[in-house]
Structures are given as structure tokens and as C-alpha cells.
Amino acid sequence: MHILHVNVGLPKEYEWLGRTVCTAIAKHPTPGPVAIARTSIEGDEQANKRVHGGPNKAVYSYDSSFYTFWQEAGKTLEPGNFGENLTIEGLPDSLAGLGDTFRMGTAVLMVVQPRFPCNNLNVRFNDPTMIRQFQEARRHGIYFRVVEAGHVSPGDAIERVESAPYGVTIQDVVDQYYAKTPDPAFLEKLFAFPYLTKYLNEHFTK
Fold first, then answer.
1. How far apart are CA 159 and CA 178, in angstroms?
2. Of 11, 93, 129, 199, whose CB has the highest number of CB atoms within 10 Å?
3. CATH number of the 2-205 domain
């Protein structure tokens, strides 16, 4: 497992379906080393901090195997195309458990939730159907909390520091999120996770 690209971006305005949208979803590779703080990455910002960023969305990763999937589906892509801070290899959603911690460079990050896309993904791909395609593909990527601040660079190894005991992967959360009736055994494990985000708590409580 290792980091392929470290991607950052600043808010930018786009004309989209007759209105102006400000988003920082367009991220581009940077050589590093790049500092990761508790709630942010050096050189990276969010346009709407009410729903983006913060401790439970401090770092977003997307696996290279997902890029392969989208390229085979006909998408022309470049690193950071999904708004991820880290384009990685070897850590897809199915191998990342809630609460698992990983050392990346000198930082330690904890898996806390999948990414659920907003309209900015449509804007980034200039395609009003991209959110639907993303949801149907069930390849959402991983949001991390920062356990220990540090620096990351392209090429850094990703080392699993600890596997959490909850038994719920990011892929499990994604699949159960779209299920009409989530599995009770899954819910029991999910609600045992002490860092369960407000968004997931509210969704699965309903």
C-alpha cells in the first residue's frame, strides 16, 4: 500500500446549469512533502465548510483500482479527479474498517466514514448524471480523522497501525446505506463505533 499522488485545491467558481457554483473539488497533484493538520491539508481548502472539511473529513482518499474501473467505463481521468487528497494504491473500501488506523508518511489517520457525493461531483465531471453513476458504482472512497499530524509525499508507504474490532468496512457502510432494510447485525456493529459521524448516525437511526 502506498500513496500515488497528494492532491490539493482552492475554491474556484464554475458556471453550471445557468448558475455560478463555488467549489474546491478540482484538486491537482503536488510534489510534497505536504503537512497534514488535525482538520486540514496544507494548500487545500473547502468552499463550504458547513458540509466539507472538519475533523471527520480531514483527509479523503480514493484507490487506484477505482480509477481503473472508471477508465474502463470510458472516463478520461487525471489524479485528484474525484476531489481526493490522496490517490492511493492497495487500500480500497473493502479493506478499510471503521476505526482502523494507518501511518502515511509521518501522519497517522483513522478511517471514519465513506464519502457521499454532492452536486460538486457533477460540476467536476461536467455531467449531471455523475452522482447517480458514482452511487451505482458503490466506489465511494475513505474519509479519515487525523490521529497524529505529520507530512505526506507521493510514494510514501501506507502502513496499517491497528485494525479496529468493530468489523465494519467502508464498503459495508456504503452497501448498507443503499439497502432498503439495513442488516440488524451490521447496525449493532456500526453503533459500537465511538467515532460514528453525525451523518451516519442520523441516516441509520432513521
1. 30
2. 93
3. 2.40.33.20
